[in-house]
Specification:
By secondary structure, the chain is α/β, with parallel strands linked by helices. The chain has 2 domains: 48 residues, RecR Domain 1 (Helicase, Ruva Protein, domain 3); 142 residues, Dna Topoisomerase Vi A Subunit, Chain: A, domain 2 (3-Layer(aba) Sandwich). Helix content is 39%, strand content 13%. The protein has 7 helices and 7 strands, in the order αααβββαβαβαβαβ. The chain has a 5-stranded mixed beta sheet. A two-stranded antiparallel sheet has the order 1-2. The longest helix is centred in the N-terminal third of the chain and has 15 residues. The protein is elongated. The chain starts with 9 loop residues before the first helix and ends in an 8-residue tail after the last strand.
């Protein structure tokens, strides 16, 4: 007897889709799906439209890699920012976190990841080549390594510091006021702002701007 393939029902398909989000397991995906189903009429349609809107109206800035509605992004296009200082972060959310502090007026570069041998993420998997090219092209004078203060972030900062030494730029690292192991996007604004202001030149003294 021929067994007919049975397509998963819409709820099961939604759960499978939600499980693709980082950090979302089967139980979390199930709860999210149930929340959507139990929400007032129009919630699901509005959510779907917001997702489509993001796809239509946002992109990655061709200069820094940040998420933006324009290219270049508003920070890269701002002539009032200090173009000689470049803050290197792991993810676009880190740009938002640092901007909220008001402690930094330079420009950014987003790596879109961090080195992680355990997950087979090497230098070729994040945007290091583009960073080096940008530093050479724009004559950057200082690079602030604002990767997360965890094992992957520290490994990435160490690797970048070695790669950038030959470019004759000042290389600094955000201060340890941020708790070790922290993702920047979850650190409070005051602490993160102090870590930017009190950044330390690698092999040198702390900065106070």
């Amino acid at each position: 007897m021929k067994i007919r393939n049975v397509e998963p029902d819409p709820v099961a398909r939604l759960v499978e889709a939600l499980k693709k989000f980082p950090g979302v397991g089967p139980k979390s995906a199930q709860r999210m799906a149930m929340y959507i189903l139990r929400s007032p009429a129009g919630f699901a349609d509005d959510l779907a439209e917001r997702i489509r809107e993001v796809g239509r109206e946002t992109r990655f800035c061709s200069r820094c890699g940040n998420i933006s509605a324009s290219d270049p992004c508003r920070i890269c296009a701002d002539s009032n920012r200090d173009g000689s200082v470049l803050c290197v972060v792991e993810e676009p959310a880190d740009v938002t976190a640092i901007e909220k502090t008001g402690a930094y007026r330079g420009k950014y570069y987003v790596l879109h990841g961090a080195l992680s041998p355990m997950e087979d993420v090497g230098p070729e998997d994040i945007k290091i080549a583009g960073l080096i090219e940008l530093i050479k092209k724009e004559g950057i004078k200082e690079v602030i390594l604002a990767t997360n203060l965890d094992a992957e972030g520290d490994a990435t900062a160490h690797y970048l510091a070695n790669q950038l030494k030959s470019l004759k730029v000042k290389i600094s690292r955000i201060a340890r006021g941020v708790p070790v192991g922290s993702d920047l996007q979850y650190v409070d604004e005051a602490t993160l702002g102090e870590s930017i202001s009190g950044r330390r030149e690698i092999g040198g003294k702390s900065e106070k701007n």
